[in-house]
Design a protein that fits this description.
mainly alpha
């Protein structure tokens, strides 16, 4: 949810150990942008990041279904407008230059799989 609203993962790191440390210390590492427009979603995200016994759905199982999600819509319409002309339409994706991907374990002497 955080990544969909903010645009990047909440505990981004160079490696899995650092990511784990950030998750375990979420009170210090979970940061919301200053101009975060989705207060209701922030509360829900923070309720996912807590001790297991206090986590959403841990006791009654109904918090998410009972959450008032209609208040998160501003009524201003979509933030992003896109269209799709068919299964091969990639016009909504960013353009990146073609690069030669170097796959570990595939040296010059090894056959490609």
């Amino acid at each position: 949810m955080y990544e969909m609203l903010i645009g990047f993962p909440p505990f981004c790191s160079e490696g899995p150990q650092e990511t784990y440390k950030k998750i375990m210390n979420w009170r210090e590492t979970l940061v919301f942008p200053l101009k975060y427009p989705f207060r209701e979603a922030r509360g829900a995200i923070e309720r996912f990041c807590c001790e297991a016994e206090k986590r959403l759905e841990a006791s009654t199982g109904g918090e998410i279904k009972g959450e008032e999600w209609t208040g998160t819509h501003s009524g201003k319409g979509r933030l992003l407008s896109c269209s799709c002309e068919g299964i091969g339409d990639t016009s909504n994706f960013d353009e990146f230059p073609d690069t030669d991907l170097r796959i570990p374990g595939q040296g010059r002497n090894e056959p490609k799989r």
